[in-house]
Amino acid sequence: IYAWGATAEIALGSRDGGKIYYTLDGSAPDTDTLVYDEPIRITEDTVIRAVAVTKDGRKSVEKRAEYRFALKDMTIESPTRLDTRAVFYGGGMKDLLKETRATCDYLDGQWRGTLDDMDVTCVLPEVRDIASVSMGFLTHHRSGIVYPERMELYIGPDKEHLTLFGTLELPDGPEDREIRKRDFGFDVHAPVGAFRIVARRYARMPQWCTYRGTPTVFTMTDALIVIPE
Fold first, then answer.
1. How many CB atoms neighbour CB 134 within 10 A?
2. CA 123 to chain centre
3. If we measure between CA atoms, which residue out of 82, 18, 74, 77 comes closest to residue 50?
4. What CA–CA distances, in Å, run from 76 to 8, 25, 106?
5. Beta partners for 194?
6. b/e 169-199 (16+ beta carbons within 10 angstroms → b)
7. N or C, fewer C-beta in 10 Å, the chain?
8. In the 3-class helix/strand/coil scheme, how is 1-48 assigned residue by residue?
């Protein structure tokens, strides 16, 4: 997730050499699509799909990567107690504005984890029209990690004058895969100077989880995504 208004340069490479073919329009890459010869410059949300083809005709497995642009210039405050282990704490809540997204490996060091509600207040440098606010979450119920039960968004001209904008109930049940990461959030379309987003954890693990009924419900998020109009 790059800063809004920035230009990102995406470099592609192949260990076995050969030509790299890619697309930017969501279609499948092949030998009749774009040929990579220099870093790809993007300024808006883009999905890059690519394959490498060696001189002897071997074709790689397709790789796909999603790049997004969002506001980064804001301060973050939070009463949430993150897990103190480095892999789940990192640099603290400010990491929710970092560029790198997490993978489905919950030990990749990119997830911020807690046994509390995920409660974040952000203050923008000035009031501006905001299109949406969302966060990325992980579910891996065999490891005691599930999406929050619900989310709440409060908005206002500053952090002292926040009012409830809306609530969102998140999926309650197993996903189509055991491990899944998804973004959940709100369409705002309103002027915002500050906002508070709260992800409310389950009081106990749902019955469909491996550790059903236990109070140690782990919540993990990897990004706070704020899109301006």
1. 21
2. 19
3. 18
4. 24, 34, 23
5. 123, 156
6. ebeeeeeeeebbbeebbbebeeebbbbbbbb
7. C
8. CEECCCCEEECCCCCCCCEEEEECCCCCCCCCCEECCCCEEECCCEEE
Euclidean distance between CA atoms 188 and 166, whole angstroms: 9
Q: Taking Cα atoms as reference points, which of 101, 107, 104 lies closest to residue 177?
A: 104
Q: Which of 140, 142, 169, 164 is nearest to 153 (CA)?
A: 164
Quick one: pLDDT band at residue 15, thresholds 50, 70, 90? Answer: confident
Give the pLDDT band (50/70/90) at residue 151: very high
The pLDDT of residue 221:
97
Q: What is the pLDDT of residues 45-85, one digit of tens each?
A: 999 999 999 999 899 999 999 999 999 999 999 999 999 99
What's the pTM value of the predicted model, to 2 decimals? 0.91
Bridging pattern class, strands 69-70 and 2-3: parallel
Burial classification of residue 218, based on how many CB atoms lie within 10 Å of its CB (0-12 exposed, 13-18 middle, 19 or more buried): buried
Strand residue runs (E) in the chain: 2-3, 8-10, 19-23, 34-35, 40-42, 46-53, 63-67, 69-70, 75-77, 112-114, 118-140, 150-156, 163-169, 179-200, 219-228
Nearest to 36 by CA among 50, 24, 20: 20
Per the CB < 8 A criterion, the answer to whether 135 and 78 are in contact is no
